[in-house]
Write a structure and sequence with these properties.
Elements: H1 3-34, E1 73-78, H2 86-94, E2 101-107, H3 115-125, E3 130-134, H4 143-151, E4 159-163, E5 167-168, H5 173-178, E6 186-196, H6 201-223, E7 233-237, H7 238-243, H8 256-265, E8 270-281, H9 287-304, H10 306-311, H11 317-327, H12 332-355, H13 368-384, E9 387-390, E10 393-397, E11 403-405
Parallel strand pairs: 1-2, 1-4, 2-3, 6-8
Antiparallel strand pairs: 4-7, 5-8, 6-7, 9-10, 10-11
Length: about 400
Amino acid sequence: MNLASLALQGLLLIPVVVGAAYALIRLGAVAWFALRRPWREPGDGSGSHSVADSAQNVSSEGPSSPNSYAPPVTLLKPVYGLEKNLEECLRSACLQDYPEYQVLISLQRPDDPALPLLRKLETEFGSERVTITIAKGEPRANGKVFNVSNAMPEARHELLVLSDSDVRLRPNFLRVIVAPLRDSAIGYACTIYRGRNAHSWHERVELLSLHDLMANVIFAHSTGASDFCLGSSMAFRRSSLDAIGGFEPLENYLVEDFEMGRRIQELGLGIALVAYSVDTMIDLDSVRDWWRHQLYLELNNRMARPIGFFATIVIQPLPFALLLCLYRLFDPLSLGILVGSILLRLVTTGLSMPLMGEREGLRNLLFMPLRDLAASASWLLALRMSTVTWRGVEFRLGRDGRMVPLVRDRSG
């Protein structure tokens, strides 16, 4: 075996070793994060403690204590279309165990097929609880930001909570997520999330991708490796939003939550990641939808954290272990490395899932090797992508994460 061959095999082994070390360190970070819980949510139906059962910085008197921090809240729910689990998710927002709050549901257009459902909820819960707004005009780029921006004049309260339309909430959610804002030095708080209702194989792979993303967020939070802002479930003050110019300046950003968090931190305010998870209902009709979302997640990572995006390639052991097997013609040594990499990945992920309240993921754990190979392929494609399609419109991505509409030459 010549020197060049040894060097190549050594290069292939680097991500295998680094990835194995990262898997173990990340498991430790998840365990440390999950242990920071002063109380459990009663009636969660689980005999084991998990991130899903807990909250950081919540009064030890419990979520229903009259002395708990519970100022009036406006809960923002941007909606686009009649999603499969929309009624369940919106109803969970209307059934919060919280003294005073407004559910502000925003639509982009008056012919949205979800409007009859929203009117039904408005009638059922009353206009004091549910407020519906319909935007005028067309969004420039980011439809979610356009949605909530147009709804803001109807927001009644200083404390704001943003929750995506596909997120299902447990009754104590508002009490948990606003608790860190008792501290005036905290600019925003967010929770992690977990996939739910995965049926097809590609939805199961999506569920595992969401778990992996949240485990990476916990690692980044625990080590201070990078900042984050999870816009699917976050709380902040209206005064902070006004200080960064409101939602309007964020309308052209692909990763609007990261940009929003960055600007709030520039005000000198801190962030809080609450040891609690919400449910993201997975609804992917086809393999094509799943693949597009995979690319979208990779592009989000590249735009928000370019250094972290490039670094992820060295913590993906499976594709490199597979390449080593191909190079060595699947000899016993390379096969042992491949099998060991897969087993370590399954064991560390399987141990982290209960800590994060992820029980559905355990049933789909054997899809993890497929998920890792798909992630490597989407990483390679996202590395070269310079455009993104949003609601049928193609945009060019700038270096700062802005989306610029592409104007095609129609002459001739």
